[in-house]
Amino acid sequence: MSDPVKTAPRRALIVVDVQNDYDGGNLAIKHPPFRDSVVNVAQAMDAAAAAGVKVVVIKQLAPETSPVFAKGSHGAELHPEIARRSRDHYVEKTMPSAFTGTDLEDWLRANAIDTITVVGYMTHNCDLSTIIHAVHMGFAVEFLSDATGSLPYANSAGYASAEEIHRVVTIILQSRFAAVLKTGEWIECLKTGVLPERDTIYTSNQRALARSAA
């Protein structure tokens, strides 16, 4: 497909897994705090609807025995702020990427979408997987860094706080995979038609080297 970032984008807002388990449940988002980021998700949905940008809501489902997102559980249900808002398409998934085993790609192609804007949870898991998958299929991607969040991990590879995970992943995404911006900035782009800033691996690395040498 043609390079979508050089012309006026045909966007869809992809709202990933804004479910109750992330809101103080068994997989509680810590950074940015869920109570703040979910407000930004809702604002992005409202702005998209006002601008004629199609909204796709994604929901993660797991077996009934799962500690998170178990089918039929309260934790698996969409957060009320998302459930009460209108949407143009709805997708249920079982894997991190919203494209795997779903009709999302077909729906985007059928609606002539060339750019997806990703919000929802989590920065480092389903958002990251969906974004990389989208880039490999030729879509341009935008990522709203204050309309998402992470949680801490500790395993055999080490420990990382929610803030560390979120910060590092957003830097990596901006270097190649997505235009990373805040919700307010994205809403302004919708109003003005200005395209968000994108970067490259090379220029990101050169700035880091210059910073180290300073």
Automatic annotation (TrEMBL):
<protein>
    <submittedName>
        <fullName>Cysteine hydrolase family protein</fullName>
        <ecNumber>3.-.-.-</ecNumber>
    </submittedName>
</protein>
<dbReference type="Pfam" id="PF00857">
    <property type="entry name" value="Isochorismatase"/>
</dbReference>
<keyword id="KW-0378">Hydrolase</keyword>
<dbReference type="InterPro" id="IPR036380">
    <property type="entry name" value="Isochorismatase-like_sf"/>
</dbReference>
<dbReference type="GO" id="GO:0016787">
    <property type="term" value="F:hydrolase activity"/>
</dbReference>
<dbReference type="InterPro" id="IPR000868">
    <property type="entry name" value="Isochorismatase-like_dom"/>
</dbReference>
<feature type="domain" description="Isochorismatase-like">
    <location>
        <begin position="12"/>
        <end position="152"/>
    </location>
</feature>
<dbReference type="InterPro" id="IPR050272">
    <property type="entry name" value="Isochorismatase-like_hydrls"/>
</dbReference>
